[in-house]
């Protein structure tokens, strides 16, 4: 069985691990089949010099106090060499989890498999033509729908949270349904599914084009974890914003701004970068449509409960395009946001932070701060809007002092490895036909 062999692999790692002195681990033994290792206080390798995190230094070492290290020192790959021919290559993942919605030139590069937007690019053979699974950017959930209305579909999932009955003070589960609150779309998508193409990505999100098939009439969107607005930049399309609910135009007195209320009691604000463009609710009563071909950016955001309709006005012109993690030191890192727009350097970028980010962020706005803009994530608590004019957040974590064990609690003896012929088992496992693997 594959699972049994996997356990044996883990056990073998312990059996063939290098001597403790080679990895800075103090070992203790209790019997021939037991080893326990504890990693000593952390040290770091910086440009060939050994640096102590405690402030004490050895000959040729440098104290970390007051120093910073470039992100490359911490996050550089161990190797970019091609894997050994020992490992046979198979393309069976494309059958198990087909890749969709990815630009052809991006397919020549490694594609992330564990990002928050993974549901937008992976599916199953059963669902490939019918089911669009949501991705959770928080505070919004997003879809690239396979049925009309097509476009970038947005849901504020907290509205639809349902919880099991409380028993002895405990709720067994809670769920979030997905609904089409608003879809950034175009009338040209009405009858035919457009082409969705994710064409680039960063540490914190991805960029997607939605185009009339075979045409350069497209809308372009940046999807970033924590984004305050869901946005699309249009070229050669008649823009429309569609909902599964009837909508009422509450206010359109400010050029380039529309406040709409949905039948589910949500209130959304729509911003148009082209303030001369005209939008109105169409005959269906559930779509806000431009009067002509639209060139510009549309942005939508849900109003927090009891918030003023102007809460987003100062930040509507700063658009986020992506974000990357940069290591500053052992315990400090920054999130560098890629932005564009006239307001980024003046009024700043508005972006939502999760609770664990707020706790360690320098100068963070909290839920208790005056004027805080607060929305809910799906499962991670309240998110608080942060404003930055430097397109950067700085976060600092406490030094971890927990002991980390290198070896498993038990390891097989050399006699046991010989008796079960583990080496041959592993070789056969590597050479086996994995395409027929079933868990």
From TrEMBL:
Signal sequence coordinates: 1-22
UniProt region (Disordered), positions on chain: 45-68
Compositionally biased intervals (Low complexity): 48-68
Residue span(s) of domain Glycosyl hydrolase family 81 N-terminal: 108-410
InterPro entries recorded: Endo-beta-glucanase (IPR005200), GH81_N (IPR040451)
GO-annotated molecular function: endo-1,3(4)-beta-glucanase activity
Record key words, sorted: Signal
Protein name: Endo-1,3(4)-beta-glucanase
């Amino acid at each position: 069985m594959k699972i049994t062999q996997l356990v044996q692999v883990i056990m073998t790692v312990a059996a063939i691990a290098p001597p403790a002195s080679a990895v800075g681990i103090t070992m203790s033994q209790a019997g021939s089949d037991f080893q326990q290792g504890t990693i000593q206080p952390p040290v770091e390798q910086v440009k060939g010099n050994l640096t102590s995190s405690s402030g004490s230094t050895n000959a040729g070492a440098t104290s970390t106090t007051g120093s910073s290290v470039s992100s490359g020192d911490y996050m550089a790959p161990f190797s970019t060499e091609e894997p050994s021919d020992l490992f046979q290559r198979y393309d069976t993942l494309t059958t198990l989890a087909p890749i969709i919605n990815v630009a052809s030139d991006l397919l020549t590069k490694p594609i992330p498999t564990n990002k928050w937007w993974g549901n937008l690019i992976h599916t199953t053979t059963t669902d490939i033509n019918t089911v669009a699974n949501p991705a959770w950017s928080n505070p919004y959930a997003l879809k690239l729908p396979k049925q009309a209305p097509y476009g970038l579909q947005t849901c504020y999932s907290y509205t639809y949270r349902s919880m099991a009955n409380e028993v002895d003070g405990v709720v067994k589960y809670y769920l979030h349904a997905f609904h089409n609150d608003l879809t950034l779309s175009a009338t040209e998508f009405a009858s035919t599914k457009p082409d969705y193409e994710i064409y680039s990505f960063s540490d914190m999100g991805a960029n997607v084009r939605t185009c009339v098939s075979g045409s350069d009439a497209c809308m372009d969107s940046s999807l970033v974890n924590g984004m305050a607005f869901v946005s699309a930049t249009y070229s050669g399309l008649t823009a429309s914003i569609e909902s599964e609910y009837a909508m009422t135009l509450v206010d359109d007195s400010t050029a380039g701004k529309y406040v709409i209320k949905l039948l589910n009691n949500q209130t959304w604000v729509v911003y148009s970068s082209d303030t001369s463009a005209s939008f109105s609710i169409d005959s269906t009563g559930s779509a806000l449509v431009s009067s002509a071909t639209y060139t510009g950016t549309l942005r939508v955001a849900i109003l927090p409960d009891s918030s003023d309709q102007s809460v987003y006005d100062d930040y509507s012109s700063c658009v986020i395009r992506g974000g990357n993690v940069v290591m500053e030191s052992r315990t400090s890192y920054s999130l560098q946001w890629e932005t564009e727009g006239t307001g980024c350097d003046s009024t700043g970028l508005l972006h939502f932070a999760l609770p664990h980010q707020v706790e360690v962020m320098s100068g963070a706005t909290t839920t208790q701060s005056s004027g805080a803009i607060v929305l809910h994530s799906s499962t991670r608590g309240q998110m608080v809007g942060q404003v930055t004019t430097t397109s950067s957040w700085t976060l600092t974590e406490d030094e971890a002092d927990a002991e980390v064990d290198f070896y498993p609690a038990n390891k097989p003896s050399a006699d046991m490895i010989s008796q079960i012929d583990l080496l041959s088992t592993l070789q056969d496992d590597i050479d086996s036909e994995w395409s027929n693997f079933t868990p």
